[in-house]
Amino acid sequence: MARTAAQVENATYQDIDRARQVYGEAFRATFEYVWGSHIPGAVAEFGCFEGFSSLMLADLIGEFDAQTDFYTAFFPRHLYVYDSFEGFPKSVNPVDSISYEVADSGYWREHEDASPPGTEEMLRAEFTRRFGDTGWTVVRGMFEQSLVSSPIEEPVAIANLDCDLYSSSVEVLDHLVGRRLLPDGAVLLLDDYNCNRANPRFGMRRAMREVFARSDGFYEYSEFLRYGWHGRAFFVHRLGDSPDPDAGAV
Q1: What's the angle, vertex CA 91, arms to CA 52 and CA 214, rounded to 5?
Q2: Tally of structural domains, the chain
Q3: Among residues 72, 3, 2, 10, which one has the least CA distance to residue 35?
Q4: Is 245 a domain residue?
Q5: What single DSSP character describes residue 25?
Q6: Which of 237, 191, 197, 194 is nearest to 218 (CA)?
Q7: pTM here?
Q8: Which end of the chain, N or C, is more open, meaning fewer C-beta atoms within 10 Å of its C-beta?
Q9: Rounded to an integer, what distance in angstroms lies between the CA atom of residue 156 and that of residue 175?
Q10: How far apart are CA 110 and CA 106, in angstroms?
């Protein structure tokens, strides 16, 4: 049976109204900042589960584009959604294999949080209803394959990472940071930043630290906002190709 947008649930919160409140405030603040700061680039999501946040992002793109023709003409927002739709991959990475969510709770075991049947089709239908046949892309597959076969090749202003595992987070961040897809001022929304008991040796905390360190000073990041018990948003600062305001100072 085909799924509908009304059947979509959220994995983090049992109370859907609480989920809408938490994500709604964080996502709206992010869109207000990006639109208000005139930051170019697409909106990308990595890990969608049932499509709760995907549909919220799509609605916000439509809402903010409708506010003025200026944004639509000069800052078009393509929406990308990447997901395996089959749940987590097997945790073969040594960091993930000893993490709390894999080794202790077992919640992030292979195929856990697989999308219900029909989720991909529902998203495609909903995006078509909102945007038509263009302006959106849904890519199925594990990140290590899908980001190679169907890479993002344009700037990304907002990236929502709900990919949980350290290894998956590294794959996504390496793609965005390594390809220098993030413009100055872009926002990274990290849904699982406080998972694994917020231990910096695991998950997204470690992935962020290591991937940005590999940029050799081209990128830095600083905190933007916190949402719920789990999420953290960061500003991305692109330093490698920016003039030094202190150069030549005496």
Answers
A1: 85
A2: 1
A3: 72
A4: no
A5: H
A6: 237
A7: 0.91
A8: C
A9: 11
A10: 9
